[in-house]
Amino acid sequence: MSVQDIFAAVVEFDIDKVVTLVNAEVASGTDVSEILSDGLIAAMDEVGQRYSEGEFFVPEMLMAAKAMKAGLEVLKPLLSQGENEKKGTIIIGTVKGDLHDIGKNLVSMMMEGAGFEVYDLGVDVDTEKFLATAKEKNADVICMSALLTTTMPFMEVTVKAIREQGLSLKTMVGGAPVSEDFANKIGADGWSTDAPGAVETARRLTAK
């Protein structure tokens, strides 16, 4: 039994095994940060790699993310006690008028698995809620999702509001209709077509 077994269990989508192994590693005194980085985070990086190579698809990523999240729930109380430095704070939500959340949920879980502190505001989120939560949580990045072209303009409204208020927040946009051209046009700091790409973009935007 080792941290590598946790890695394998996440990649194999075995939620029960992940929970059992994480608990066992904690009980045996394995460093929590090692379980997190070498077990859970490394596994989700592997899942992202397999997705980019066409070996995994969205259903597999969702199953792996759920397994990772189950392991993370075991570690959360211990992480808050320790000195594990979070990678950054992300506010995520689907924009106003849009109720689609599968892609957003996947990004949220993978961000959490990558070591970010994530506050998921759900769907139909307006600019005021994005900004209020970002200020309250001292966030680094606001991540906005949209599946409908009719709701994409709300992304621009939020980006403009951040600039007008002089906030030092980074913005990311994503979703099926979102393109690099659109992201550049509205002044977003980053964009992605998929969850692994979103994690990499967030890492870049929050790099110290």
Output the keywords.
58% helix, Methyltransferase, Methionine Synthase (B12-binding Domains), Chain A, domain 1, 2 domains, alpha/beta, five-stranded parallel beta sheet, single chain, Rossmann fold, 208 residues
Can you tell me the CATH topology of the largest domain? Answer: Rossmann fold
Widest beta sheet: strand line-up:
2-1-3-4-5
Number of domains: 2
Helix content: 55-70%
- Structural category is alpha/beta
Mean pLDDT: 92
Concise account of the structure shown:
With 208 residues, the protein is α/β, with parallel strands linked by helices. It has helices at 3-11, 15-27, 32-52, 58-81, 102-113, 127-137, 153-164, 180-186, 195-206, and strands at 89-94, 117-120, 141-145, 170-174, 190-192. Helix 7 links the parallel strand 3 (141-145) and strand 4 (170-174).
